[in-house]
Amino acid sequence: MKYCESKLYNPRYQTCCDGVITVPGGWPCCKTEVYNSENAICCKDKIHYKKGASCCKDEAYNPEYETCCDEKIYPVRNGNCCGEKIYDPRTEKCCDGSINDKVESFYQCCSDKAYNPLHKTCCSGKLYSERDLECCGEKSYSPLHESCCSGNLYSQRGMKCCGHKIYNPLYESCCSGNLYSQRGLQCCGDTTYNPLNGTCCSGNLYPHGGLQCCGDSGYSPLHHTCCSGKLYLIGGLECNSCGGESYSPLYETCCSGKLYPHSGLQCCGDSGYSPLHQTCCSGKLYPIGGLECKSCGGESYSPLYETCCSGELYPHSGLQCCGDSGYSPLHQTCCSGKLYSERGLGCCGDRSYSPLHHTCCNGIVYEPSGLSCCGTQAYDSSTLSCCNGKITHSYSICSTDRRTIRDYREVLRRFSPLLIF
């Protein structure tokens, strides 16, 4: 809920317009009413039911068929306004709110008048009936006969300005508004220099002529090489391009558009690396040099850092495989391709079991542990025995037993009272 001045209202179903609660919610307001913006518009607190309309002062109009000029509506589509009037730019030109007719497309404005620049000159809103003139403040002049400096006209031609002063470039030089009584000088920042004896690079003056510039540094191509504003201490080096930036392969390495400030590196994707300290396997870097790269599902990897199981790569070393899954024997047990989330189990056929609590006999699990096996059956060897794959009493004689006659006699003597013939 929200407040509309001092009254509560629900914005989901109501709208607050200028202190008045109305319905429905979420619609725009026009004074104290709401309206559907898809088929109406509000102009100066009045609702106009015109689809696609815009406002021209307090009236609605359709820009697809009408034009609004300075709060007046004209029945012309996409018209051009000149103040409150509409005009045709093909034959008319609007200059400072005035419409000039009978003009060409190349005409220009001089204050509120249109003129042909091939025949006239405009200076500060004033028209002069000569062509090829230039402006000096509000006045026009011919550079063939006069010179202009800071809005002042001088009767000598060919003169130039140095700040607010006029000077003859044949006899003087100007730098940063200062005049120097020697011709042929050039400017370097606020001072002058003779290009025969010095070199200027971005405002820095070097006392040697014939140097070249590398950014703001001067250098000799015999002793240095400049690559995109960077100086290298050997002349005549080749500059290569790396990501749109020049560089010298003797000092840097480029990998897929990335520049590294060391030479002799190799590339692993867009990374530079030293084979002495790292190994690259299919675009992946490992922090030990000289590792062996193996293939796993078409992707290279290092067994020192990863484990491959049936083409699947796991980001841990020392794992074992259970089918196509990698696992740690310290935490899980694998039996016939199935993983169990307990450690220390044994396998009995294709299932797991605990040797501390069970006995496995040829794929079948029995309780408890410590039993003996007779084929697929378990038995207690303290009271039973296994003969030819069958469990019998421990006192029974097995034809395959390799016992001596003395052993049989001892058995008969001990159990003769129990025998019935």
UniProtKB/TrEMBL annotation:
<dbReference type="Pfam" id="PF24748">
    <property type="entry name" value="Galaxin_repeat"/>
</dbReference>
<feature type="domain" description="Galaxin-like repeats">
    <location>
        <begin position="186"/>
        <end position="311"/>
    </location>
</feature>
<dbReference type="InterPro" id="IPR055284">
    <property type="entry name" value="Galaxin-like"/>
</dbReference>
<dbReference type="InterPro" id="IPR056601">
    <property type="entry name" value="Galaxin_dom"/>
</dbReference>
<protein>
    <recommendedName>
        <fullName>Galaxin-like repeats domain-containing protein</fullName>
    </recommendedName>
</protein>
<dbReference type="InterPro" id="IPR036770">
    <property type="entry name" value="Ankyrin_rpt-contain_sf"/>
</dbReference>
<feature type="domain" description="Galaxin-like repeats">
    <location>
        <begin position="54"/>
        <end position="177"/>
    </location>
</feature>
